[in-house]
Amino acid sequence: MYAPLIAPACLAAAGIATVLSAGALAQAFPVKPIRVIIPQTPGAGVDLILRKAAEDLTPRMGQTLVIDNQPAANSVVAADMCARAVPDGHTVCVLNNDAVAINPHLFAKLPYDAARDFRPVTNLYYILGGLLVKSALPVNNVQEFQAYAQAKPGVLNWATLGPNTSTDLSRRWLADLWKSNIPGIPYKGGPQVFTALATGESDVTWMGVYGALSLLKAGKVKLLAVNGSKRLAAWPDAPTLKELGADNMPSAQSWWGLLTTAGAPEPAVRRLNAEFVQLFHEPKFAAFLESLITEPSTNTPEEFANLIRDRREFFGKLLRDYNIPRQ
Questions:
Q1: Could you please report the per-residue DSSP string of 247-306?
Q2: What does the alpha-carbon distance between residue 63 and residue 60 come to, in Å, rounded to a whole number?
Q3: Which of 40, 118, 231, 234 sits in a 20 to 30 Å window from 24, CA-based?
Q4: What is the tens place of the pLDDT at every residue in 279-291?
Q5: How many domains is the chain built from?
Q6: CA 287 from centre of chain
Q7: What is the tens place of the pLDDT at every residue in 226-267?
Q8: Domain range for 116
Q9: Are the C-beta atoms of residues 265 and 88 closer than 8 Å to each other?
């Protein structure tokens, strides 16, 4: 006669135990150092931001966050390492459009599956990018640069992070828009791109403004346009892409986000999400991001997964429109 009363009680106890178990797992994670794989060179913006994040998160997570720079092959090396890691949440990677939205349409034999091999954790931030030219170039605004590019097709060169990366697609997109020809020159990372601009080896690029701060202040490069919702206070003469009617440029949504290996335990994913989201919105860290001309833009794992899916569809259409075959 007591069975109907006992069964719900047992179920409730089991439910409480499950919640407590999940909570205990979340608190237990991490149990060893966390490897953070980055597809760019030391000194690049994403490297600076994640090293600062690792410094701040290590004491609160109780384990060291170790930065592992793997710059090569359109982010393929870094993404593949992350995809093949033990799925326990102790290996994460910080990736952008190139790895998870462009590469699936670019490489026929990609060693990882961008849709299945990763578990999105959170977007982290947007880079406020800019159209940057070397100081010796006789242009001071986008209109003058457009006229110069149209008058001298094939003379200018655009520093990129490799063929068909988002920086390279922006080069092609702008050249097509202006009916001109601006050849691309690939470099290994952001610091190398800025060195090429400063020395005059390259004429123009679209990159994160933060990487060019010292060069801008020294007058070695010029900023002609920016993305973002408003002009930068320090460079009020540089209009936004939206003002120019060019906010569909492939680099306009330049985000970096945190992912881990597919199959990572849910409590580990939630703990990583909670810690990074909290950090990126703390006033001190937000001020640090602002100093690097970036904007925090965190979200839930589900929202980040939707962002990646949307960008993958966008770049798939773009590469098809350009008739770029898979390699």
A1: TT-TTSS-EEEEEEETT--HHHHHHHHHHHHHHHTSHHHHHHHHHTTEEE----HHHHHH
A2: 8
A3: 118
A4: 999 999 999 998 8
A5: 1
A6: 19
A7: 987 789 988 999 999 989 988 788 877 789 999 999 999 999
A8: 31-126+253-321
A9: yes
